[in-house]
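Query structure, 416 tokens:
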């Protein structure tokens, strides 16, 4: 299903937890074919705060302004809209807010100044509000949101505050180690906040209920728009599957036992009734280093997951229509990035992937010929190993790396 509504919702929701990460993938378009560096190097230097004991909520006071808030106007603590939003969220989720939340109202100029500090390619029109785990406050840009959308936005952002008070978003973000786990976590966080909007606001705005049914963005060739669909719509579908099983209590358990991969978001039954954990792949890093061409150094390791695999094919016109089917059957992967020094350094990626069946592995392997940056590839039953680089490579380099990839220790279908 495709809805123009998504445009509005993408704008409404994009980057709402942006500053927690660097940068939020849904707000910082980067080509789907470029995986981010290994997560630990990508982490902001935020220290986790100790879990707050439950306390009687009190109204936020102006002197609560956290140290790193330099702009915006602190909203009146008695704002009736805020009271109404919190009541809706508590009714829907069955969880209580432990603390009052400071709300700062930004002008578009405040937002522009803040975004400069975030860095990255944030699109101002896409950001109408955001929650910041580091300050425990949220920020609204009502001029950009317009009156109609600003209440839904408030409910969404306040739900992030509730998540943070109960599940500690900073610790959750620190717990993920790979691109794949990061996608899965973000889908849980955003899917939960969207589902609370759906359950709390559908009477007022029937279109809100349809957010979860979006499967294709309006702008099909914009990777950031696809990520938005994944986090908000597919994330909400995942949350709906948990909710159908055991209500919000089951949804909230997922913050304690996070989905292991984006595969489980895309196929919720692989989290609920037929658990499917990623295959374990341990690359022989010494062998990879020994096979690296002169001047190339190890830059990071990652697991990309089914969603990123699908986006690799979505980014190419020749494989666009088959992308979903090609990525389905993903079992696990491990990628290592080698690069030369300097900002414009050359990059080579060695990627070992595993598949649920030999047929799916063969299908994936055959489609690699249509990706312009694949320089070498081979299949051995359910394992497909490949080398990617934007530069053409000497055949001997590809061969040496493929052999190093062949030394990976692989455990297919690990015990649940
Ligand atoms: Zn959000």
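Result returned for the query:
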């Amino acid at each position: 299903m495709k809805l123009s509504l998504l445009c509005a919702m993408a704008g409404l929701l994009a980057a709402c937890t942006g500053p927690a990460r660097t940068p939020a993938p849904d707000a910082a378009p980067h080509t789907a074919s470029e995986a981010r560096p290994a997560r630990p190097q990508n982490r902001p230097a935020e220290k986790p705060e100790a879990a707050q004991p439950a306390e009687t909520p009190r109204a936020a006071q102006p002197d609560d302004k956290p140290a790193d808030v330099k702009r915006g106007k602190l909203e009146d603590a008695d704002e009736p809209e805020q009271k109404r939003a919190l009541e809706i969220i508590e009714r829907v989720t069955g969880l209580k807010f432990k603390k009052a939340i400071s709300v700062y109202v930004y002008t578009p100029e405040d937002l522009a100044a803040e975004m400069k500090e975030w860095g990255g390619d944030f699109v101002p029109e896409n950001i109408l509000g955001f929650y910041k785990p580091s300050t425990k406050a949220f920020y609204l840009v009502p001029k950009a949101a317009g009156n109609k959308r600003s209440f839904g936005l408030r409910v969404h952002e306040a739900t992030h505050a509730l998540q943070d008070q109960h599940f500690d978003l900073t610790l959750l973000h620190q717990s993920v180690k790979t691109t794949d786990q990061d996608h899965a976590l973000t889908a849980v966080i955003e899917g939960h906040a969207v589902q609370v909007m759906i359950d709390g606001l559908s009477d007022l705005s029937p279109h809100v209920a349809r957010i979860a049914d979006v499967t294709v963005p309006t702008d099909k060739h914009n990777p950031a728009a696809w990520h938005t669909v994944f986090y908000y719509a597919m994330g909400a579908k995942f949350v709906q599957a948990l909710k159908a099983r055991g209500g919000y209590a089951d949804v909230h358990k997922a913050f304690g036992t996070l989905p292991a991969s984006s595969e489980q978001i895309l196929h919720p039954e692989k989290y609920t009734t037929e658990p499917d954990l990623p295959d374990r792949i341990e690359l022989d890093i010494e062998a990879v280093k020994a096979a690296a061409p002169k001047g190339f150094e190890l830059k990071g390791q990652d697991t990309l997951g089914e969603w990123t695999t699908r986006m690799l094919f979505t980014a190419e016109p020749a494989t666009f229509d088959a992308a979903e089917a090609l990525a389905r059957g993903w079992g696990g992967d491990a990628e290592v990035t080698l690069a030369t020094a300097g900002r414009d350094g050359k990059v080579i990626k060695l990627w070992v992937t595993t598949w649920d069946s030999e047929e799916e592995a063969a299908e994936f392997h055959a489609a690699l010929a249509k990706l312009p940056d694949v320089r070498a590839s081979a299949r051995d039953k359910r394992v497909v190993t490949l080398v990617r680089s934007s530069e053409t490579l000497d055949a001997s380099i590809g061969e040496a790396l493929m052999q190093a990839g062949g030394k990976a220790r692989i455990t297919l279908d690990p015990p649940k």
